[in-house]
Amino acid sequence: MQSRQKSWLSRVFSGARPLLRWLEPGIGVKRYFFVFLAGTTLLGVGLTLLILDVYRTAPDTWWLPIFSSLSLRGLERPLRILIFGGIGFGLVLYGVMGINRSLLKPFVRPGKQLLDTVTNYRRRDRGPRVVAIGGGNGLSSLLRGIKFYTHNITAIVTVADDGGSSGELRQKLGVLPPGDIRNCLAALSDDEELITQLFKYRFGESAGLNGHSLGNLLITALSDITGSFETAVAESGKVLAVRGRVLPSTLHDVKLVADLHQVGADREVRVKGESNIPTTPGKVQQVWLDPNNPEAYPPAIQAILGAELIIIGPGSLFTSILPNLLVPDIAAALKASRAFKFYVCNVATQPGETDGFSSYDHVRTIERHLGGRVFHLIVCNSKEMTGLPENVQQVMPELKLEENYAVYSANLVDEEQPWRHDPIKLARSLMDLFYERTGPQTLREDYPNR
After folding, report:
1. What is the CATH number of the domain that holds 387?
2. For residue 195, is it within any domain?
3. How far is CA 166 from each of CA 123, 142, 180, 433, rounded to the nearest angstrom?
């Protein structure tokens, strides 16, 4: 008999557990539920007084005995209060949940429970303020993982790109290059399915659009309509339901210039244009912007100064990362910020740009251009991989780096593309490292795993 009672109680508690989860801290539901409950209670008191008044003053008719039976007058008053209160509470709870489920159904993904969707949204909405600086595939890969941890993301992107579709639009229409911004917007989209794939769709050369992507054309068109590149980026983010912001490091039309040392000819050559640097033989010695003192985009400065975590990299060292840091106000804000500053070292070298570079070379190159040490932690991949493309070497943590910097190394590589980071592995490691320094992280079982 006792075992049956325990079994019955366990079933009751297991059935109530999903309902009790709605009362967990941080979801933002309890305050409104209690307001709703107070309102229904007052409404019930008013309705009860009205019924009692009718019952006491109405003449003796046929419906009075029926009313007396329905009001359970034969039971003790405390028991009647408990029965009616329990039924009312259950109906209120069922009604609130039904309304919420109906209203939020369009936003709940298949296979996900309503409570999980609300919990994840609230958790990310209260996530840390993260600023990611870079460009190219590296930055978009990082954002694709970080968005699972926080909505408070700001990506600061280079506008020195002058190759491909972006370069052609920049040259012919005078707009800032939209390519890297387009990739970051797509990476931060809530739903990287049809609309995002459409945004990234690239027309063929035979279509007469010179291989332009639809996203590049959309941002360019919005720039012309709104008269503002930054407004066009913001409106594009709304179309993609982006959580976070993507900001250019500057609104000035800047070009990247590099000095290269050609060992065979034993001479220095100067190359102008981001797309020309990797294709020109020689080892990059130094890069700078032309004009060399562009004003930073003010919201980018504000984001850096207000950040809790700043992540630089991964990405092309000379053509994606450094063009942002060469904007003087960006560099000054980075040094002044009290945020934790992590540098994510590339997992492999880039042909024509960082051939033969070690992890130490990557870090020292950035600090040499910034004029001093900046990073609190260097994050490196430690898993050796095969199947790299020709003329690409893996970049691993080395003794010289570990002797001079705080280094964290782990398996961060994408198994299918071993020259790139895995977005989920990288984001999980970065956020774990951040929370080790700031405090415990809650509800971590809901985060993606790989």
Report:
1. 3.40.50.10680
2. no
3. 36, 21, 9, 36
